[in-house]
Amino acid sequence: MNLTGLKDEETIIRRHFLEPIAVAHLLHDEGTLVDLGSGNGFPAVPLKVLRPGLDLVLVEASEKKSAFLWAVLRELGLKGARVETRRVRSLEDLADLLPCRYLTLRAIRSGDLLKGQGIPILRPDGKALFFVTLEQADRLARHPIPGLRFSGTRPLPSDPRSVLAIFDPDAG
After folding, report:
1. What is the rounded distance in angstroms from the CA atom of residue 135 to the CA atom of residue 162?
2. How many domains does the structure of the chain reveal?
3. Does 68 fall in a domain?
4. CB within 10 Å: which end of the chain, N or C, has fewer?
């Protein structure tokens, strides 16, 4: 279905499979993981396979990609997983899914998307995991998303410029 621009098998393995494996230890096997802009299902579907006790909500605007994601969930027999086809323009568009224990995203602009008032993004024991470039992580650290506290980055195995930006709930 041409859902990824990656063609090299080694790059696909490092980015789509090794990245979720490298960060799975940051998640517990309970709670809801909301993945924004799920696209081809990475990193969220491998995280669900590694943490089967999580409830997974894949949020995707494209009907084509949503249909693909539903097929993947059925083929893998993943219980406690669903696809929400919706365009998210602000935090209010996610009000029925928040607060969640885990929030993941890759390749979408989070700054404007997650701005909003009065809606907590994460549960008190939650984490947001953003698969971004080092430059994007620096920008997020300098301009925090309301309700999230930047707690640092971790390198990812796909590319030296790729990092995991980690956020905790901001109680203040």
Report:
1. 9
2. 1
3. yes
4. C
Do 39 and 14 form a contact (C-beta atoms < 8 A)?
A: no
CA nearest to 21, candidates 40, 47, 42: 47
pLDDT digits (tens), the chain, 172 positions: 444 454 566 655 555 568 898 899 999 999 999 999 998 898 999 999 999 999 999 999 999 999 999 999 999 999 999 999 999 988 899 999 999 999 999 866 666 667 666 789 999 999 999 999 999 999 999 988 888 999 999 999 878 889 999 999 997 6
Q: Which amino acid type is present at position 154?
A: R
What CATH code is carried by the domain that includes residue 27?
A: 3.40.50.150
In-domain check, residue 6: no
pTM attached to this predicted model: 0.90
